[in-house]
């Protein structure tokens, strides 16, 4: 099952709410070229902390050359050459993207060119936090002496890659926001896939098989060499490799060399200038069959692309990043049907930013998610699950002095020690119960993901920052072979306000103990009522059951009111989650109580003046 939730059409992000087609049509009708007000051709779009070269000019492709093209001879990995920006991680991901034509067509729609439809506007689509977004840009690009200074193609008149980088910079706030990153981050934004990382020095023995299977399944891959200090960044090794630099992996093959099978890997450097000069960079090719040489395109003149023996690869590189289009294990020959559960949350200082387990006094305050893992009846009595924790919008926040938080998570087995009715487990549970599984490490990457094999049962997932009191928004994706029941322990602020308004009979703005006791009796009945209609324990009920559930709660409404309530609280799948259900019940209860107090003669109608209406609006 594809991981990306591919909508029919990506969401519009332009501030005026207009789509690419609308904007292009308007420009063509007016005879003007598009100028993007959301990402203007100004210094602020380039850098927020660095000074911009005084001789930078923003130019359209038709001002740079006489015959600009969007794509020349098909988009391929040789179209990506790095400019002055330190975003090789992005370039490596784009190079991998060009190897996947269907995915490429999604991210870089082919319906644009410098022909009669040209209006100075182009569009691209990126995945962000479980949504596909349409990003439009004008084609004014930063140049110095008529040369592009950022990402560009080896062909002087090809501009798709430069415009794509501009769109990605707009999505993240500026070009400077793209400096430094993980190849996997961009790969996920191009696919909606889920990432896995391997350390070559501590990898499974079948790493070559894992990586080859990944390529065969359409996964995107990158690799890099670690640095131990900032001085090593972009330092060249004696074998021609660059430390701290992102490379893309473009091929995996086995060849017969002098009577032995040799495993080879093909790698591309986005810089296109520095290549591996060790074994298989030259003479070894003379000892394999000519047809093999042709098949592997060894004689290709692509700058920056090279083959090396896999054992040399493991010795020289430190990390491999794989973005899988499905959650199938790369170590398993069996393909599974995967379900994905998602939830968004946040760490808030003084409330839910408790830090990691080292800080036991605050760890328990972190957001908690209860999971129900079910056996898939494949006779192994275990459940496969992939948990991916992603922090949101951190590149955009760089201009405010914020960067990636160091994040991770822990999973706890729930049993008799943690009664199901407990909404939020306290400090003692975590003090006396070790985690069943956890992320390998806490790291300052956008996403941390791990694959686990766990017995069926109930679990508690606790996502955290490493340090307490650090704030961030996050997205959790849980991939399981059967849909994992997921329950967020908490109600929205709006629902809490509604509850207080309902039960606060003395108007103190808070609930006294006797008021809370009355509310809790109501709450237990409402929970049981919801569960009776939430038959699959998904945390949602069908909006078609609204009449029945309200009737069971003693509230009988006409069709018009039911339709209005359904429109207000149901999502696009005609489902109502528990939080919205509770808000609906509480507000209706409040309205019924207010009406009955005003309808002193039980006539079924009341007359109200403005002073009586205002409190009613406030409490509902």
From TrEMBL:
<feature type="active site">
    <location>
        <position position="88"/>
    </location>
</feature>
<dbReference type="InterPro" id="IPR022683">
    <property type="entry name" value="Calpain_III"/>
</dbReference>
<keyword id="KW-0677">Repeat</keyword>
<keyword id="KW-0378">Hydrolase</keyword>
<protein>
    <submittedName>
        <fullName>Calpain 9</fullName>
    </submittedName>
</protein>
<dbReference type="GO" id="GO:0004198">
    <property type="term" value="F:calcium-dependent cysteine-type endopeptidase activity"/>
</dbReference>
<dbReference type="InterPro" id="IPR001300">
    <property type="entry name" value="Peptidase_C2_calpain_cat"/>
</dbReference>
<feature type="domain" description="EF-hand">
    <location>
        <begin position="521"/>
        <end position="556"/>
    </location>
</feature>
<dbReference type="InterPro" id="IPR038765">
    <property type="entry name" value="Papain-like_cys_pep_sf"/>
</dbReference>
<dbReference type="GO" id="GO:0005509">
    <property type="term" value="F:calcium ion binding"/>
</dbReference>
<dbReference type="InterPro" id="IPR000169">
    <property type="entry name" value="Pept_cys_AS"/>
</dbReference>
<dbReference type="InterPro" id="IPR036213">
    <property type="entry name" value="Calpain_III_sf"/>
</dbReference>
<dbReference type="InterPro" id="IPR002048">
    <property type="entry name" value="EF_hand_dom"/>
</dbReference>
<dbReference type="GO" id="GO:0005737">
    <property type="term" value="C:cytoplasm"/>
</dbReference>
<dbReference type="GO" id="GO:0006508">
    <property type="term" value="P:proteolysis"/>
</dbReference>
<dbReference type="InterPro" id="IPR022684">
    <property type="entry name" value="Calpain_cysteine_protease"/>
</dbReference>
<keyword id="KW-0106">Calcium</keyword>
<keyword id="KW-0788">Thiol protease</keyword>
<dbReference type="InterPro" id="IPR022682">
    <property type="entry name" value="Calpain_domain_III"/>
</dbReference>
<dbReference type="InterPro" id="IPR011992">
    <property type="entry name" value="EF-hand-dom_pair"/>
</dbReference>
<keyword id="KW-0479">Metal-binding</keyword>
<dbReference type="InterPro" id="IPR033883">
    <property type="entry name" value="C2_III"/>
</dbReference>
<feature type="active site">
    <location>
        <position position="245"/>
    </location>
</feature>
<dbReference type="InterPro" id="IPR018247">
    <property type="entry name" value="EF_Hand_1_Ca_BS"/>
</dbReference>
<feature type="domain" description="Calpain catalytic">
    <location>
        <begin position="33"/>
        <end position="326"/>
    </location>
</feature>
<dbReference type="Pfam" id="PF01067">
    <property type="entry name" value="Calpain_III"/>
</dbReference>
<dbReference type="Pfam" id="PF00648">
    <property type="entry name" value="Peptidase_C2"/>
</dbReference>
<feature type="active site">
    <location>
        <position position="269"/>
    </location>
</feature>
<comment type="similarity">
    <text>Belongs to the peptidase C2 family.</text>
</comment>
<keyword id="KW-0645">Protease</keyword>
């Amino acid at each position: 099952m594809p991981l990306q939730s591919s909508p029919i059409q990506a969401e519009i992000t332009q501030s005026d709410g207009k789509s690419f087609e609308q904007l292009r049509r308007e420009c063509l009708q007016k005879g003007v070229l598009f100028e993007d007000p959301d990402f203007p051709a100004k210094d602020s779009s380039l850098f927020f902390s660095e000074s911009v070269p005084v001789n930078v000019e923003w130019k359209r492709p038709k001002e740079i050359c006489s015959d600009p093209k969007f794509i020349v001879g098909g988009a391929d990995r040789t179209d990506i050459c790095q400019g002055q920006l330190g975003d090789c991680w992005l370039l490596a991901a784009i190079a991998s993207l060009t190897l996947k034509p269907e995915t490429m067509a999604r991210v870089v729609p082919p319906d644009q060119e410098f022909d009669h439809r040209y209006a100075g506007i182009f569009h691209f689509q990126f995945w962000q936090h479980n949504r596909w977004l349409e990003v439009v840009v004008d084609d004014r690009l930063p140049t110095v002496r008529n040369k592009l200074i950022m990402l560009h193609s080896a062909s002087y008149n090809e501009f798709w890659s430069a415009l794509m980088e501009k769109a990605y910079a707009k999505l993240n706030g500026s070009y400077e926001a793209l400096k430094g990153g993980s190849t996997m981050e961009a790969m996920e934004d191009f696919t909606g896939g889920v990432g896995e990382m391997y350390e070559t020095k501590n990898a499974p023995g079948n790493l070559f098989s894992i990586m080859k299977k990944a390529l065969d399944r359409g996964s995107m891959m990158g690799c890099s060499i670690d640095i131990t200090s900032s001085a090593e960044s972009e330092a060249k090794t004696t074998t021609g490799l660059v430390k701290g630099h992102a490379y893309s992996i473009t091929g995996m093959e086995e060849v017969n060399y002098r009577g032995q099978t040799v495993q080879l890997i093909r790698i591309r450097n986005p810089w296109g200038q520095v290549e591996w000069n060790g074994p298989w960079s030259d003479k070894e090719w003379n000892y394999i069959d000519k047809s093999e040489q042709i098949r592997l395109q060894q004689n290709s003149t692509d700058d920056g692309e090279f083959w090396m023996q896999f054992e040399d690869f493991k010795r020289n590189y430190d990390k491999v990043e794989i973005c899988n289009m499905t959650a199938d294990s790369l170590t398993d020959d069996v393909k599974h049907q995967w379900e994905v559960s998602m939830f968004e949350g946040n760490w808030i200082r003084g409330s839910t930013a408790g830090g990691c387990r080292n800080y036991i006094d605050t760890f328990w305050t972190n957001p908690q998610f209860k999971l129900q893992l079910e056996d898939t009846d494949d006779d192994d009595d275990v459940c496969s699950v992939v948990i991916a924790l992603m922090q949101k919008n951190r590149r955009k926040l760089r201009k405010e002095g914020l960067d990636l938080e160091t994040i991770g998570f822990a999973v706890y087995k729930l049993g008799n020690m943690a009664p199901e009715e407990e909404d939020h487990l306290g400090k003692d549970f975590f003090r006396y119960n070790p985690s069943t599984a956890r992320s390998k490490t806490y790291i300052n990457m956008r996403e941390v993901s791990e694959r686990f094999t766990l017995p069926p049962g109930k679990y508690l997932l606790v996502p955290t920052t490493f340090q307490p009191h650090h704030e961030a928004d996050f997205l959790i994706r849980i991939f399981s072979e059967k849909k994992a029941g997921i329950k967020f322990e908490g109600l929205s602020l709006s629902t809490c306000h509604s509850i207080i308004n309902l039960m606060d009979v003395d108007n103190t703005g808070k609930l006294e103990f006797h008021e809370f006791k009355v509310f809790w009796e109501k709450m237990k009945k409402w929970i049981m009522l919801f569960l009776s209609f939430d038959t699959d324990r998904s945390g949602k009920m069908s909006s078609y059951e609204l009449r029945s559930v309200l009737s069971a709660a003693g509230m009988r409404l006409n069709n018009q009111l039911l339709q209005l309530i359904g429109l207000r609280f149901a999502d696009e799948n005609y489902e109502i989650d528990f939080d919205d259900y509770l808000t609906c019940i509480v507000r209706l209860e409040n309205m019924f109580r207010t009406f009955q107090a005003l309808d002193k003669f039980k006539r079924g109608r009341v007359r109200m003046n403005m002073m009586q209406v205002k409190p009613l609006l406030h409490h509902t």
